[in-house]
Amino acid sequence: MKKDPPTLSEIVARGELMSADCPSRSVLQHVTSRWGVLVLMVLAGGTHRFSALRHQIGGVSERMLSQTLKALETDGFVLRVSHPVVPPHVEYSLTPLGREVSEKVIPLADWIETNFPRIAAARQSLERTA
Description:
This protein is mainly alpha-helical. The protein contains 6 helices and 3 strands. A hairpin with a 5-residue loop joins strand 2 and strand 3.
């Protein structure tokens, strides 16, 4: 029995990362960006305030950290809790969905760190031949 090809709504609902119109691509970009991975890694260790996150993630600007947190919050990975005090006290933590995705990206970051000498050697080898 021949199966009908999937409808456009089925394709969009499932996500087709190789398709230029795939809505999953923005989530992939948020999660796998340099700052997205690092935020997920830090928040996997527990709740943090903005300043503590910025301190732990060397080199990130306030603007980039704010954008990254907002994107991850929009995707349902980060929970932002604002306490009604003066000065403002805002805390960030992972949602259950955020914990799941952090469990996927942390091994990738660990693999890169572990294998960085090999990566650096490959880079040097390519530079010598260029």
